[in-house]
Amino acid sequence: MNDIDEIFRLYKIATDFQKTKFTVCWPEFERKLIETEITENRQWKIVASDKIICVWATTFNDPQIWEERNNDPSVYIHRIATNPDFRGQNLVREIVKWATIYARENQKQFVRMDTVGNNPGLINYYTKCGFDFLGLLKLKNTKGLPAHYNNATVSLFQISISSERESNKSLTF
């Protein structure tokens, strides 16, 4: 809970950056959402030199976005926000390494992620980080999801754990 103000600062920086690059941006997230994720141990961070350099959230269920695919045992990654002082350091690749290990430890078959819209640059980046691009999906039921999902089409990504080779088990997060 001590990190919540820094998490929101990183979200604000990420949203401001999104406004310069994309048409869809993150809304201001409700504090209760982040508090719940922290309490449930679903909010993660990478720290270097006592500084938070990246945050993200996870869940084991994401039915409104993944629909019938939600039945597959998966770890879903949301809201990766990087401290701008550490951009360009391939932190998503580090998150992928961590998520692959985390999925195995929790008997999950997939690591999944979505982004709002059809963004070729992000699609290319996430596939270079190890995700398979599954295509676009027009969301049907967005009630209760953050505002940027309203009436949205999302890009879906996944990594199959069974086909992914384990690497660097010594990572700590």
UniProtKB/TrEMBL annotation:
Residue ranges of every copy of the N-acetyltransferase domain listed in the record: 1-152
Superkingdom, taxonomy of origin: Bacteria
Pfam families attached to this UniProt entry: Acetyltransf_1
Coiled coil: none
InterPro entries, A to Z: Acyl_CoA_acyltransferase, GNAT_dom
Protein name in the entry: GNAT family N-acetyltransferase
